[in-house]
Each structure stands twice: as structure tokens, then as C-alpha cells.
Amino acid sequence: MDEAIYREKLSKSLRHVFDSRDLPLYGMMSYHFGFHESEIEFSPDYLHGVSLLLGSEFFGSSSDVAMSAAVALELINGFCEIHDDVQSGRPSRSGRDSLWWVWGPAQAINAGDGMHALARMELLLLPEKGFSSELSYQAIKLLDQATLKSCEGRFRDLDMQEKLDVSVAAYTKMASEKSGALLGGALAVSGLLNDMDSSAQSELMYSGCLLGEAIQIKSDLDQLWNIPEGEGVDFLNKKKLYPVVLAMQKATPTEKRKLGDVYFKRVLEPEDINVVREIVENIGSKKEAEDRFDVCIAEVEQILNKYNSNADLSSQIISFITNGSSGQL
């Protein structure tokens, strides 16, 4: 399974979707994916689309017949990314100006919503690859379910911002939906294209949600320890990071008060992260978060190995998903 080849094929297919339409709206969409000539150094990971293609091959069929579905997943992810950037006021994504920063939030929303519509249209092309119209409908249903769950996760994430005491269960629900629903959709659709039944599709959807939780935990750890001070947008926006959620469950009254002094400030300062780091590390929540990441990965491996006994291939898929994510979720 060659991820680089999948990226190249997916890039060409996505470019064709935009180049076949001449309204400047599609030029904006093209910009988001790095297809402008001035952005040739930009190389998207195509996490969701490539995951679907890897899954399709893993479950036994050619990736070529799954390309329309892979394009659809990338378009939906683009829709989510654009809305995320507008909501958070993030001026850049992956080292480039965000679409809304260039064209403004109103036109960015138009571009994102247009991607959503294009994604569903791509799945209507599946019968051209030999699939039935009924299967095309089922693929759209899986995509819509995954998209809705992703939106629900984003709602939970925003709702948690002004709350200090967030339960671990609430965080897990948010992370699995926000960061994992589309990954679950990618794996479930790849299962559908390989004639797997609804029970298997549900299990694959769940495995994607576990991977999303793992990615979110990894991203949260990076926000606290691996991103230069002042660049942790999620921390500065008061997003509830998993190590902090864990720490709040075990913190003493004094430690809770110190965390509250940080998170109830109207505007966080970059140096506030030092207080949070110290408390989280002293309680042991950093290690606990790392352990939960490992548990999620182990459970996904167990699920995937039920459908293909080649453990190396399942590890390749998991490694691509967890290491290929840009961290901007």
C-alpha cells in the first residue's frame, strides 16, 4: 500500500473537480487544497481520503474504484476545516493563509458549503464504477451520518470552552465525534464498497472514532508540550485539553483554584500555559493521557485484524492516520 501514490491520484481527482468549473468560487476551493500555482510547495496529507483508499485495499478491492468516495471524504473534511478556521479566527492553516483570511468569512463559508454539496455529488458517481444505485445511497447515508457526528463533536467542543470541570466521558464523546467521525466514515465506506455488512461497517465506524480520540489526545499533548509558546491556538481559545480534563478529576482544591484562575480569565496569555503544565505534570495526567492513546490504538488494531490477518498492513493504516494528521483538527 503506497500512500504517496494514493495522494498523487487523489490530488489529480480533486483538482479535476475544481478545474471543471469556472466560477471563482471553485478557485477558492482549489486554493484551500493548495492547487494554486504559487502554492506548489504545499502538500496536503489527504488524511481522510487516503485512509479510505488504504481501507479499500486492506479489505480486498482495488483503490481505483473507491476514488470518488475518497474525493468525497476530502471535500467534507475541507468543509469542516474551513468552518473551523472561521470559528476559531485562525489566520493560517498548515503554514498558509486560511481561506477566510484571504477572501473573508462570508465567502469562505460559501466555499465550505459548496464542498459539502460536491462531496455528495461525488458519491452519486459510484454506479459509473460498477456499484449499484442502492450502494451509492448507502454511501451517502454513511457520509451524512459521519458529517453530522462531526458537527455534533464541534458543538460539544465549543460548549466546553467556558466550563472548567468537564468529565472524561464528555471529553471522550467530543473527541471521538469531532476528530473521529469522518475517519470512521472513511473506514465504514471502504467496508461498504467491499460488501461488508452493516455490523462490520458500524465496527469500522467505531474504530475510526477511537482513532479520532487518539489523534485528539496527541494534539492536546502537543498543545501543552510540543508547540512553541504562544502558538497553541486551542489552549489560548480555552479548549479543554485531555490532560487538563484528567487533572481536574484528581486536583486538590488549591490546584483546582489555580486552574480556574487561568481558565476563567477573559483572555489567556501565552505564559499561562506554564501554570497548567506544572499542575498537570505533578498530578500525573500527562502520563495518563499517553496511556489512553495507547489503549485506543490497541483496540483499533484488534478490530482491523478481524478483517485482515496481516498485522503489518493494519499497523500501516493506523500509523498513517495517527502520524499523518497535521494536528489541526
List the helices and strands and how they pair.
Layout lengths: L2 H17 L4 H9 L14 H12 L8 H22 L3 E2 L2 E2 L1 H5 L1 H19 L9 H28 L7 H11 L2 H13 L4 H28 L7 H4 L5 H9 L2 H11 L8 H12 L1 H20 L6 H14 L5
Antiparallel strand pairs: 1-2
Q: Quick gist of this model?
A:
The chain has 16 helices and 2 strands.
Strand content: under 5%
Mean pLDDT comes to: 92
Cα distance spanning the termini: 25 Å
Major beta-sheet overview: 2 strands, antiparallel
Class, according to the CATH hierarchy? Mainly Alpha
Indicate the structural class: mainly alpha
Notable traits:
single chain; 329 residues; mainly alpha; Farnesyl Diphosphate Synthase; two-stranded antiparallel sheet
Detailed description of the structure:
This protein is an all-alpha fold and 329 residues long. The chain has one domain: Farnesyl Diphosphate Synthase (Orthogonal Bundle), CATH 1.10.600. The protein is built from 16 helices and two strands. It has a two-stranded antiparallel ribbon. The two termini are 25 Å apart.
